């Protein structure tokens, strides 16, 4: 149960990092086609949850379809589910995430996918390192 909660937390944090860094990058280039509304934090949280749920639900579905019908496309499942999950998040929570224009729909999901993939890979190692350091420090305090 703890492992499931940890994986869920990691995936939600990774999704949030992916969306936030994509927004920051787009703002750095002056593109307003992938925009997080920071005035409505609850809508942003809803958009992140919808995005993460969309990815978690759609990924096995698309993987099964690709495995059966087009095995060569199996590697693209993550990217396809990212596109669909961003579409769902922008559709259901437009106050939290606004995607428009070719940059938003072409480059946005690619950046979110890359950052989310890296964050999902790196966060467990970082969290484990922090937990181990905390255990060591508590051990010193007890002595």
UniProtKB/TrEMBL annotation:
The chain crosses the membrane at residues 9-30, 42-63, 70-93, 105-128. Keywords: Membrane, Transmembrane, Transmembrane helix. This is Superfamily IV 4 TMS phage holin. It comes from Isoptericola jiangsuensis. The keyword Transferase does not apply. InterPro entries: MFS_trans_sf (IPR036259).
